[in-house]
Recover the amino acids of this structure.
């Protein structure tokens, strides 16, 4: 991490203008995010143990899966009696977004190939958010590493503490701890509801899951509800006049600031214009 | 045993998609439709999971103390409370309503 790699040509031009952030400021931001979110591993440990998973299983999830929403989803689906594969499928679909984070991060961090398999486990919402906010590659690498490390260590420690605590508490439902997981989902969901498309998708998904719960096997309703996403996109695509493409809200617009803009794709359109 | 299968499948799948993002050339996943879908899929899933875990038990749809807890979480969200406060509010209110016999 100490030596700067030879910078690939696609390094953002803003970098030269942007004021270098002192390393300490980057570390402070990264620690803030890592500690705050890392502590919520406690809620996961409690929820998982309360759902009937063993201590070893709960800790294995935090160590090996390490993407919160997927972990909560898996535990919730198993508790509801879902079979292992539908439960895993729901958790997996929630994890797919991390692939898109990785796309951005691999450009920003320019990690050596040999390091990538190790860095991959830390590619999650929080590390991405911190990394994208940094003006230089050095700051991005520091931000990613510090956030990843603190979050990973704390998330796993608090998972263990939560799972042990849940055993001590006995009936976790009496303590209201079964409300932790939906509250986590709501907190993750709320910032995503930026336009009518997102809100309609969410509403449709809620209707689908509640409508299908009584009739489909456990785990399946959530997967069917996920189809609300392609369905809304399809209807929207049919509705829209091809000429007014421009008014589509751009997703992840904040990310574009740090997106260097690829030069290796055959650009038959001006960068960022025709999307 | 079933639980371990689910854990293994989830761990493997989630790790591979993370790695995929780092290894694949950016162009491959940059198609607008793929990006839109990847942004919208978590919305649908999180909404469905929130509803399922708040308003159901097994195959039954029902309104209980968790509904009050979720309302408290929504309120905390609306006033931009930190993450842990949001979750804490849901837990406390749910426990409170249950203690009162709700």
């Amino acid at each position: 991490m100490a030596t700067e790699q030879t910078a690939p040509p696609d390094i953002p031009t803003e970098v030269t203008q942007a004021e270098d952030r002192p390393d300490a400021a980057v570390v402070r931001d990264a620690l803030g995010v890592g500690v705050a979110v890392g502590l919520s591993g406690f809620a996961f440990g409690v929820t998982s143990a309360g759902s009937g998973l063993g201590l070893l299983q709960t800790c294995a999830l935090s160590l090996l899966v390490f993407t919160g929403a997927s972990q909560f989803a898996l535990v919730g689906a198993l508790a509801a009696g879902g079979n292992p594969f539908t439960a895993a499928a729901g958790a997996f679909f929630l994890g797919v977004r991390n692939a898109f984070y990785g796309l951005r991060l691999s450009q920003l961090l320019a990690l050596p190939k040999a390091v990538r398999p190790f860095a991959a486990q830390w590619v999650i919402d929080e590390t991405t958010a911190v990394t994208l906010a940094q003006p230089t590659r050095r700051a991005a690498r520091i931000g990613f590493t510090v956030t990843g490390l603190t979050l990973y260590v704390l998330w796993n420690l608090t998972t263990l503490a939560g799972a042990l605590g849940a055993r001590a508490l006995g009936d976790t439902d009496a303590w209201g701890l079964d409300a932790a997981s939906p509250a986590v989902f709501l907190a993750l969901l709320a910032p995503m509801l930026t336009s009518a498309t997102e809100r309609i998708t969410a509403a449709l998904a809620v209707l689908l899951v509640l409508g299908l719960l009584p009739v489909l096997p456990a785990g399946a309703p959530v997967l069917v509800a996920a189809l609300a996403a392609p369905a809304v996109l399809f209807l929207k695509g049919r509705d829209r006049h091809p000429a007014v493409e421009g008014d589509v809200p751009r997703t992840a617009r904040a990310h574009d600031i740090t997106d260097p803009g690829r030069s290796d794709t055959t650009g038959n359109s001006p960068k960022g214009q025709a999307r | 045993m079933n639980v371990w299968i689910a854990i293994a499948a989830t761990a493997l799948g989630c790790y591979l998609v993370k790695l995929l993002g780092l290894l694949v050339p950016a162009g491959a996943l940059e198609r607008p439709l793929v990006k839109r879908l990847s942004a919208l899929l978590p919305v649908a899933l999180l909404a469905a999971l929130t509803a399922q875990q708040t308003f159901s038990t097994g195959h039954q749809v029902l309104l209980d103390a968790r509904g009050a807890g979720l309302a408290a979480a929504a309120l905390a969200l609306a006033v931009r409370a930190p993450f842990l406060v949001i979750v804490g509010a849901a837990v406390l209110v749910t426990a409170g309503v249950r203690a009162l016999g709700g």
User: Anything to note?
Assistant: The longest helix of chain A spans residues 137-169. DSSP finds 15 helices and no strands in chain A. The radius of gyration of chain A is 21 Å.
